[in-house]
Protein 1
Amino acid sequence: MAKLFLAKSLRGRADNSPRLLSLLWAIEGGLIGVPSAVSRRLSPDRASAAGRRLMRAIGPRLAKTQVFRRNLQIAFPEKNAAELDELVREIWGNMGAILAEYPHLETICRSEAAERLQIVRKGDSRVFREAPSPAVFVSAHLANWEIAAGSVVFVGVPLTGIYTPIQNPWFDRMLYRSRLALGCGMVKREGALRQLMKALRNGISVGLLVDQRVDAGEPVAFFGHDMNTSLTPAQLALRFDCELIPVQVQRLEGARYRVIFHEPVQADDASADEHERVLQMTRKLNALFESWIRERPHEWMCSKRRWPKDLAI
């Protein structure tokens, strides 16, 4: 998170100076903490709108915009410079809305969930009718991705999700406290596999965000270019004989969402060996995420490098 707001040169100096880094963390904590306190006093919809306006104005000036732009150029080579500029502004605006909504996750996903979450189920997934029948839920960094976990819990499915601790402890504490409102168990990404397997053995579903590059993953096509992709969701689904269910989150008006539980992803060739079935399922996931992003590119949080640095654009 800190990398969203700090210039590269300043980050480099801070990385070599613990005191400077602590100072910058505190400054960033204040820069986010004050708006968060203001957001908490507003209604979810007003907070979301205010956060959107603020980050549409500020975001494009930040260093992270370069990463946004490169990812968008690779994914949408047909877009011209003006279209990319507007898309960058919209993505920053959506990020501002997300940040402003963190203090309201309890309202969105619990106390007013019936009004704010439009749930759509495609197919007849076993997890919704046979308890305990765990599933592996997967989603992408679209709209407000935190809503995916909250929606799984809202429809009555116990869930354990993964979170990545943020380097800035101020941000990390703020986000962790906000995520408690989602009602799911949370495990740190590092060393999470064992805890995910334990959850599935105990009949508890697991949730993962898997649209980003994973160094330890395998190359799988994403927008026409190989991206190192996590095979973990498909591996878990096959190992525990459970459904692999994509969850699509779409922003409606303000802090209101449509959440689509898609039909479970299955391998094309049930007779293939396990690794090939895992790859088949993972290819389907990447293709599905790509279709979601093409449909709503302004809701895609593409703040991290997806493809090799030397990929020509």
Protein 2
Amino acid sequence: MSERCVKLTTYFGERDRTPRRLLADELLDIYAEHGVRASVLLRGAEGFGRLHHLHTDRLLSLSEDLPVVSIALDTPERIESLLTRVLAVKRKGLITLERARLASADDAVAATDAIAATDDERTDAEKLTVFVGRRERVGASAAFAAICDVLHRHGLGGASVLLGVDGLRGARRERARFFSRNADVPLMIEAVGSRERVAAVLPELRRMLHEPLITLERARVCKRNGELLEVPHELARSDEHGRSLWQKLTVYSSHSATHEGRPLHLEIVRRLRASDSAGATCVTGIWGFHGDRLPHGDRLLQIRRHVPVVTVAIDSPERIARSFAIVDELTSEHGLVTSEVMPAMRALSGATAAGSLHLGEHSR
């Protein structure tokens, strides 16, 4: 059986501080002290939170406090053991907990067997995440490029390579520095595909990588290349124990994709910010693919960037339904849109807080 794990994700500003130092450094040290199995720190390109203040790398005056996403992964017991310290140093932003499982040799069989119980292969999907080093190699190729090639060959719907600037690998801190190869700084490849295709790709990934760290999470594919497949899960606001349930809406697109002449991811953020959405964050990748197009990234002498962009919005079920209406309109031609159940979320703003980090129960 595959091992259960919990993914702790924190969203905050690059310049957020504790009384001693930057919040990002404080969090990574907490994770290291607790021996967290894996963690990666991602620098966002654009986003806003509950107060609707825009943070973007496009304007010099707004680029000094870019959104930052910190992801830590380990057993439920270890993540629970460090939450008190995380809450003690983090005074604003968003904290979420999600259930996942570490992919094992049994997952190919288990996932394939589960296809028979799937109502619709097109929409009932798996999100597969692979953690590797920035300069890790598979033969003569960069590991992230080789992984994307395999994912594309197996027909997954898309994959985005997100570059870490700090993180843990095997409970060891690895930080990106100037004048360094930064070979072990972690990055993550996030891919979405049908459960059958994810099951088929797992054995090959395990053979090609040394001590691979691969996680699996359930997701619903709502749109693909402009085609509406399904709406986000219909959820009650709380489970039978009164614990709140939340939802995550993710749009996988390209930096070059546009809506009426404006970059698609920027228009999504603009429209969500003008609505009652609680927040959204964009992270730009370095390599990836969507649909049938071959894996690619930026090339020299390009006028437009051709890298993936991942845009995430987390909110209550009723507000996600309204946000999806906006996303549905804007992704009439491009993008892969997924929804996931978020069993725990806590939003912090100064002295006020909303939500809870007690994992809710739900059925898909």
Protein 3
Amino acid sequence: MQPPQVSIIMNCYNGEKFLHEALDSVISQSFQDWEIIFWDNASTDSTEKIVESFNSKKIRYFKSESNTPLGLARNEAIKKATGKYVAFLDCDDMYLPEKLAQQVKLMDDSGFKLTYGAALIIDELGREVRKYKVENKSGYLFDSLLKKYEINMQTVMLERALLIENDLDFEPTLKYSPDYNLFMQVAAVTECGVISDYLVKYRVGLAGSLSKKTLHLVADESCFTLDAISEKYPQVRARFEEDFEAAYIKLDYYRAISFINENKYVNAQKVLCPIAIKSPKYAVLYFLVLCKIPRTLLLRLLRR
């Protein structure tokens, strides 16, 4: 039997609330040559029953014996994939109908090893709250992504052989940004394709969301990735030295946001003060912190 063109990796832990919608969004794709690798990360809710209710041979269900970090869970799921391309979908998000078709065509026609696109941001009720547009054009994007990372995980499709040939996977020790770590390594070695159309609906504002709980990890994990790329690809580091230095400076901006989230405004002031002259964005945040803008309002302005 011929393997499918696309393997869709769905990692899930107690995702029953929106799971049916997520699976329906794959079932209704205009492009139908796919399989779902559904990795149940030891859920205790009705996740398994919902998956079984679809009764589809194209959905390959696996259940972990214990709950593991997301990066490790994604690596285990990818090992089960058979498609030429790998895509990703979390259980509270949805694909738009032409998502797979657009990316497969672009990758087949161009030879891009990774593609991504724009996303519609929705709330818990599925209402659109804003549009997440992409600014880059297809090509070698590492330096652009270093300055402003714009890859939404759910929009990504990449060539599975690229991961195997370059010994690339999700770093299992990272809790906040295993996707950033992997995709920046991919961008360091190859051109990427960018689709300006909206490819997914990405849900935000979930109570107890991982991103809220792990804001304190952003700076350290981003630093981990910058250090790893510097060591693994010294020629890339040398080529974009100024951009790397700016990226390292930005880590203090992330640290300040973490301090704001913890209501530690004095700490935020201390890390922002030395970098305030480096960027208008840093200067504005420093001013807002000095003015003691309420934490909830400030985080909302920062879209955190």
